[in-house]
């Protein structure tokens, strides 16, 4: 659904996004983009010897994809990212895992007459329904009343 | 310097990373990677009419690059991302801005006999020394004593 | 809106997608991906001397983006691409142009008891409302009745 | 061979292009570029449960690569894409399949004194010689006579 | 032309490749791919203060593109790269420059009964005909006689 | 360690870089970037029938990555690439191989009062300690004395 204004969100509102398979390509692209070449992400020989037993996705990759998935279901929303809170990585995401995000609007704050903050908690889960990461994203959203009376 | 263990970090330790120019390419690549095609990032005509006056970088792009820059100065560190806290976006990053990160180790916690948490606060600034984003990254780092006696 | 089945489409139904600015990055990436390095797309000196006066986007790039934009508004649709018809390029798309697609369901055909074909005509227009390309995409879509009685 | 002008083409002329293996990388890159994240292309768990039994390439990816392969054998041709017709997808292209294009000049039309249209039919086949897609590409090509007398 | 065997090459044979504009995108992609984030390539503020007065392309980028251009004109050649010699960078390649390669077969050596070495000197020049780099690439090529009598 | 000036290098100085796994993604990206689609890199069916038994990385890819790895350990060095010499490819790098570079400063030449040349020999080895490529990179580095008295 199109979310244009602060008033279009409701506390307790939930969404389950489509899934996306995290591929070796995603790890290579994210390492290159971010410059984070930590060997646990990019050196298969090293990664084999860690407790993970193989390469794992960057936490920030999981956050980028997990957050991005939310926007697929809100393709026309007019939002700006205000902040991110309480990002925690619970379990590794390996090459071939398929993740999706389950979200809930947990808090709404009127910032001023024209803008509000919407806090959305996201739980990123893999194909085994295992929780791999949680985060709270804070979107800055315009308010309808102000817009329409302006 | 090579940071291998928890004991290699010290509270109050500061770093200033090299800079990186945020290009139109970065915006296009990050939109494609994350699936976040919000028009303020990818539709120049729309972006012109916002209060930003043009396309701006995704907050998560700034966080990915700002965090990644820290790792350029620690190319062999054996760390895992435990969490991220208090991410706030203060000012837009526009195409052509050059950002760097100024970091400080703000907290160190012994998690158990083999691992510790290192909290690093990062201030992302642009070429005008303007603060564009702040974050606290929490790294999970192995402890030396345990490793060497094991 | 979620389009799951053939029955969710209706002849005459129209959509206007968000816009996307076609960047130099898009031209470079598409040339590299497709292997189509025609100098009118990748050699600025040559392109200056053509009747276009500068580099223009690949027709197939415009088709890929113009078709992809349609799916942003249908993020969960379960479709397969059956065919494409009547693709015509009317005007060049230059670096910096912002295109969107205006679509209309123009034909629906019951293929058999379980599947139907939906023909969608797309008009790709730029920021000056100039028509740059038209196409007819034919989607293969499952039928609801069959699914629910199966 | 270098094809510079309309007169360099001949009806019935055939070409067989080199092959290109369609990799997982290609699917990820094309999904990101086009914004078409249909789960049959990007969600391995979902794709397993479809009649395809796994992820398949986007039809438009096959068309982009199948068309691009033609240009490898005509690296200096001065053409513009006029249109595309009769694109049909017969069989899925899976990750790891190697496709090539077999083409034939099927129609040539003098558009005016300076330009002509060349219709090329392409059959995209995989490593088992199975036909996966067909298309007719229409190139706009300059005419030699006009050029040399101009 | 299709070069299949050692015998298809001739000393003194020359080629002039099509041109390719080196874009900001190319610099960003090559920095990311290679991990070479030297600020003269990726930090516009720093680069302004160098004697180049702005960002310049990586030497290895120029070599990769300059060498790759040669293969556009030999799309079906069956070769392997044996070595590279005498790579020298004479002048910077800036964002927006268009480079091409002028090559000459300078040496041919029969390695054994089935293989030969072909040394090709390449001069990479920009749109002002200024020499920006030179290199000698050594290709390993199969010999026809052996192949046909085998 | 930060290498700022010619005087920071010493003949005989050695480095062993972190490793990087060469993925199918790297082959696809490098083929696309360079335009080198030689079937031994991009056509799995063809590559199977060569003496390599499968796709192998481009020599220039190995050189780009092998050289780039050196810079990870010298993230702030102010250098320019002056030339490359004696590049030889000894063994193929296959998809999944993990390579690293062992380097040694082999020659230092004072070019003039403000600049010097540092020749670094690099041996690229895979996970079996097999030598896959060697090269000599020549960096142009500023001299400290001149800089500080200027």
Written account of the structure:
- Six copies of one chain form a homohexamer.
- Chain A is of the alpha+beta class.
- Helix content of chain A is 27%, strand content 35%.
- The first copy, chain A, contains five helices and six strands, in the order ββααααββββα.
- In chain A, strands 1, 2, 3, 4, 5 and 6 form a six-stranded antiparallel β-sheet that branches.
- In chain A, a hairpin with a 5-residue loop joins β5 and β6 (131-142).
- The longest helix of chain A has 14 residues, at 59-72.
- Chain A is elongated, with a radius of gyration of 18 Å.
- Chain A starts with 13 loop residues before the first strand and ends with a helix.
- The relative contact order of chain A is 0.24.
- The mean pLDDT of chain A is 91.
- The A-B interface holds A 20, 26, 29-30, 33-40, 58-60, 63-65, 67-69, 71-72, 75, 77-89, 135 and B 26, 29-30, 33-40, 58-60, 63-65, 67-69, 71-72, 75, 77-89, 135.
